[in-house]
Structure formats: structure tokens, C-alpha cells
Design goal:
- The protein has six helices and six strands; from the N terminus they run αααβαβαββββα.
- The chain is an alpha+beta fold.
- α2 packs across α3.
- The longest helix has 28 residues.
- The chain is elongated.
- The chain starts with a helix and ends in a 14-residue tail after the last helix.
- 40% of the residues are buried.
């Protein structure tokens, strides 16, 4: 039965491409986005294997077609092994068409050190004003964090806590301007997201912390930048008890 064979081979191809994409990106054998593209192609073949497997099972019922039934079931099984976890991730994280989030959409912090780094996917670092309404519509309000203390005091806390977060690499530390830049590297595909934290004065003995986080590749970040900002603000308020999910997350 042709459908059963196709389901079986598509499932094997899906498994191979997903594994190849993860391994190639994780170990630097290919750029992260190329590895992620292989991963998505494998997911596509896994979906096809599931559909063909179901059809193949329906068309190979009966003892005389036992071989085709087994191949169709195997195709369905391996297709589900690949597709189900990926589908679960996509269902938990909204694919919002934005990969640059900031607590100040009117006057977002501007990258300095990131301008000297490879764009990887050819994207610029200037903030696109069209992101502001998309952010407001799809995410809970992303507000700056107001803390007691002078900018010097609050910035010192930012500097210490940011330096302790796994997978964050500080690329610029400017105490005079109260600005800190860095790169967050995802755990699986080794995507690089640029972030900048800025402390601004707010009255006699208060400061406002602004933060911007931007992915270098993809249309959607699956919420990674939003999680990175809110999680770091939570650390600033409560101490280093929670690791930011955004420091080790996937985004296309």
C-alpha cells in the first residue's frame, strides 16, 4: 500500500530532519535559524506522516494487508512523536508577529553594542513603530519598573543581577549613562536575542527601569522577549530566586 509506505518514510524523514536541525544549531554546525528551518521542515513531514498514516490504516484493514497496516501505524506513531511536542509548544505560546518588545514604545532604549555585532538574519536594530500597537493588543501591559533609590543605586542592582543570569552575556556596561546591554542565548537552538536595560531618574529618590529585548531572527519570538523582560523585573523586585524563562527559549 503506497500510502502506508509514504507515511512510514515521511515519519522517518521528519524524525531525521528535526534531530538534524537541533543538533546542527545547538553545536554550531549551522547558523541557528538554518537549524530551526530544518526543524520546521521535519515538523511539516511529521504532519504529513500523521495524515497519511491515518489514511493508510483505514485502507489497509484486513489480514491480507497486515504489512501495510503495520507501516501505516509506525508512520503515525513516529509522526506523533515528532509533531505532538512541537504542537504543544505552539499552543502554549502565541505566534504574535513581533520580535522586539520594550517598556517604552515612545522612547525605546537604543542599542549601541549590538550595532557592532552580526545581524545574523539581516534585520536592523532600529525600533519599528508598528510594533507598539501589536504589543499593546497581544500582551498584557508591559510597564517600566519603578524602584526606590537613586539611578546609581538601582543601576548597581541591575548590573549585579543581570550578570548572574545563566545564558546572558553582558556586552556593554555604562554606569555613567546607567545603561547595560547584553545577549541572551537560547538553550536549544542557540538563538541570540539582544537586550538593553536603562535606569532613568524619577524624582528625588526613585528610579525607573526601562528594558527592551529583541530577537535577531524570525517574525515571532513566541513570547520569549516578553518573558525575559517581565522575569527580570520580577528578579529586581524579589531577588534572584526565579530564572527568566526568556534566557533559554525558542523563537522563530
Amino acid at each position: 500500500m503506497v500510502l502506508a509506505w509514504l507515511a512510514f518514510y515521511d515519519a522517518l524523514l521528519g524524525v531525521a530532519l528535526v534531530a538534524a536541525g537541533i543538533v546542527a544549531a545547538h553545536f554550531g554546525l549551522t547558523p541557528p535559524f538554518k537549524g530551526f528551518q530544518l526543524f520546521l521542515i521535519g515538523f511539516f513531514f511529521a504532519i504529513i506522516a500523521i495524515v497519511l498514516g491515518l489514511l493508510g490504516m483505514l485502507l489497509t484493514r484486513g489480514p491480507e494487508r497486515r504489512g501495510g497496516q503495520i507501516r501505516a501505524r509506525l508512520g503515525l506513531f513516529f509522526g506523533l512523536i515528532v509533531a505532538a511536542p512541537i504542537a504543544g509548544i505552539l499552543m502554549r505560546h502565541r505566534a504574535v508577529p513581533i520580535n522586539d518588545l520594550t517598556t517604552d514604545t515612545q522612547n525605546p532604549p537604543r542599542f549601541v553594542a549590538a550595532l557592532k555585532m552580526s545581524p545574523e538574519c539581516g534585520e536592523g536594530l532600529a525600533y519599528n513603530p508598528k510594533f507598539a500597537p501589536i504589543q499593546a493588543q497581544n500582551y498584557p501591559p508591559l510597564q517600566p519598573l519603578t524602584l526606590d533609590g537613586t539611578p546609581d543605586t538601582v543601576y548597581k542592582r541591575v548590573e549585579i543581577l543581570a550578570g548572574e543570569i545563566p545564558n546572558w552575556s553582558i556586552t556593554r556596561n555604562d554606569p555613567a549613562a546607567h545603561e547595560l546591554e547584553g545577549v541572551a542565548t537560547s538553550e536549544l537552538f542557540k538563538f541570540h536575542d539582544d537586550f538593553i536595560i536603562q535606569v532613568r531618574p524619577d524624582g528625588a529618590n526613585q528610579s525607573v527601569v526601562q528594558m527592551r529585548s529583541k530577537s535577531r531572527c524570525g517574525v515571532s519570538d513566541l513570547g520569549a522577549n516578553y518573558d525575559r523582560i517581565t522575569s527580570f523585573f520580577r528578579i529586581l523586585k524579589t531577588g534572584p530566586r526565579v530564572q527568566p524563562p526568556g534566557s533559554a527559549q525558542v523563537q522563530p
